[in-house]
Amino acid sequence: xxxxxxxxxxxxxxxxxxxxxxxxxxxxxxxxxxxxxxxxxxxxxxxxxxxxxxxxxxxxxxxxxxxxxxxxxxxxxxxxxxxxxxxxxxxxxxxxxxxxxxxxxxxxxxxxxxxxxxxxxxxxxxxxxxxxxxxxxxxxxxxxxxxxxxxxxxxxxxxxxxxxxxxxxxxxxxxxxxxxxxxxxxxxxxxxxxxxxxxxxxxxxxxxxxxxxxxxxxxxxxxxxxxxxxxxxxxxxxxxxxxxxxxxxxxxxxxxxxxxxxxxxxxxxxxxxxxxxxxxxxxxxxxxxxxxxxxxxx
Length: 298
Description:
Blueprint: E1 23-25, E2 34-36, H1 40-57, H2 61-84, H3 88-91, H4 94-98, H5 100-105, E3 112-115, E4 118-121, H6 124-144, H7 151-167, H8 174-188, H9 195-212, H10 216-222, H11 224-240, E5 246-248, E6 254-256, H12 262-267, H13 274-297
Antiparallel strand pairs: 1-2, 3-4, 5-6
């Protein structure tokens, strides 16, 4: 009989990973521990199964089918990105292909856009240009506002809840919201990250639901913090050729030495713990969700 003795520091063991998920470094924790990444696959599996059940039951079947195919397609691309670690220039193009299910299956009669109290019929350009553009912008900008425990899942949860409240129909979003509550808890505690498979899938859910329920203006307002963050990052990377790092001080708090993103804008002027930073960014997102809801309901 062979006895194996292993001593493990309880403070270093955060999570027992039952499946061979890829690992990511938690950059903002002392010791930079490795954490399972890609738990967003659970969002894809649960939500796609839920939406196909709605299709089978005939409850908003057409909309549920659009969501299921779009998220399944986009989630596969996100999982591939988690495994292959694609360069950003290639990653940015993936959501264009993830819009194909909506382009093929989407209702051809809904091609109008409301502008300044009026409406403009875009015809074929709605499906061929506007939907892919919208999916690409929403998914990429949502994906870039991350890097802190719980930020991606929690911010997506806030926007989804806002859309569900304004649409007054929780049927399509009941399962996504419940799964995101769980994933927000898991990622906030540093036990696992949702990865690109999660951010791609949640971003696609936001884009497709807003098109289905005609809440495009609300989504645009909700996404403004994400878009500003993306513009700052792109300007830093491709114009300034410089990236600001989020650093740890001697007290374990985060700070930034220059502004290159929404997160570093916040941390440039004040040292905050990771949780305080995430909560502050949650509040920023929540403010724009409330503004978007008010504008949409007027």
